Structure formats: C-alpha cells, structure tokens
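Throughout our pipeline, every protein is held as a single compact record rather than as scattered files. The record that follows is passed on verbatim for readers who wish to inspect the format.
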Amino acid sequence: MAQPVSLWVLTVFASVAAASIGILLVLGSYTRRATVIGQLVPTRGMATVLAPATGVRVPRQTVTTLGSGVADLAAQGKSRIIKNISQGGYQESGPCFNKTEYFREECADGLSSERLSAPVMLQEYIEKDYEIRAVVIGAAVYGAAVDSARSEMTSLDSRYWGMAGLTYYRIGISDSERDALVKINQLLGLSYSAMDLIRGQDGALYFLEANPSGQWGFVEMLTGFPITEKIVDLLESSS
C-alpha cells in the first residue's frame, strides 16, 4: 500500500509556496494593459517617416518634452537648431513668431529627465542654398524659392522674408523630385499640401514639413502660378 505523504513535507511545501507568493507581491512588477481608441503615430510626424521612402532627404531631428532628449541629441556634437512647438496668441508669444534659433551646446548642461516648459524640436542644421515653398495639388507641383541664406534675419527662419526685403520667385524642380513630392502627398492621403523644403549647398533636396492647410496666396501673388484655378479644378473633379 502507498504510504501517505509526511505531514512535515506538506508543511514545508506550503511554507515555501506562501513565501514565494509574498516575495512576488512585494518585489514583483507587471505591465498594465488598457484599451484605448486611436492610432499610433511617430513623435516626429508621419511625413518625416514617409518622405525618405520617396528619395527625399530629411534632416535628423527629435521632438521632445524631456530635457534628457535634448541632451542626448546635443551630445552627438553636430550643429543644431531648436524651436518651441507652439505659436499661441499674443498672450503667449507676443506679436512675433516663436523664432527658430541656433542651439547652444552649453544649454544642454545639467538637463535632466524633467519635463520642459514646452515641447521643442531639435533639428540638424543644413547648410542651405535657398528655401522652397512647394504647393502640391494632385499631380501638380508649384515651387517658389526665397534666398533666405542671404540675410541674417532669415538664415534660420525664412518667415521674416518680408522684413528682410526678400521675395519668392519661381524655381525649377526636377521631374524625379516632383514625383517624390506628389508621392509624399499620396502616402499621407492628401490632395493638397504646402511643403517647406531646403535646397542644400550639396545640391540635395531636404524635406521639412507638409502642411495640409498651408498658405499659398502669397506664392500665387508673387509668382503668378495658377494655384487658385488648380484648386478649383481639383474640387470640381472631386465633387
């Protein structure tokens, strides 16, 4: 006949099990799961992820609210520019833009993981020949350039082009670059966007952003491009 398990064996087993459970409750950790509605998107935006697939270059950049994120990118030792990701009203920034500025490496000293007062974008500085506002409507691309590198006032932020006495003018874009910009719009599911680009001194085209509601009136006024007519055609063909 089978002998019953000794009481002391059962006692030891129960004690070990209880101790293990206690240790797990005190020292253990777990991953919290929650169901949320929405979709995941890159912190730098979809456009900066999709653009390289079309052959257009994108400056290396990060968008962060953490001081450590700024410090990590600054530690790579390359020239950077920095800008607050906020425009706000007069109460926040006054009647001026939140201007893009050079990032001084000494500003990264002492930054910790604490949150910054506002999100910032830290971006690789590109030695540029000129900047381009490309209005993309369907398969049509209208490129206007401004020689922002010629003025200290606009060398980092071309939005001051009027105050610097500069203007936009028509610029040629190669067929391959035109196709790439149209492709970016298609990948983003857009029929229209106003893109900001840089023509680097190395001759490469660098993509900065695609604004689905970006301004185009000043481009048409200064260059004579038939942008209004093209937008009307697009709307009529979609109705």
